[in-house]
Design goal:
- The chain has 3 helices and no strands.
- By secondary structure, it is mainly α.
- It is rod-shaped, with a radius of gyration of 26 Å.
């Protein structure tokens, strides 16, 4: 039962101090990345919609005529 005691001791130790400013900066950075991904996803959805609804316009766009 020595292994069980060591697990209990680990659970009783206080967690390392967390730098709140660092966590907030990381969350802000993640939010910025998610906003960029949202815009890129919307653009890809528009591109996909154009491909299926107006293939002639998509071909012209790919050739640089539109």
């Amino acid at each position: 039962m020595q292994g069980v005691e060591s697990i209990a001791e680990v659970g009783e130790r206080p967690a390392d101090p967390v730098n709140l400013d660092c966590v907030l900066k990381q969350l802000d950075s993640m939010l910025d990345c998610m906003k960029v991904l949202e815009v890129e996803t919307q653009l890809l959805q528009c591109n996909l919609t154009t491909c299926f609804t107006h293939p002639d316009k998509m071909a012209a766009l790919a050739e640089g005529r539109w």
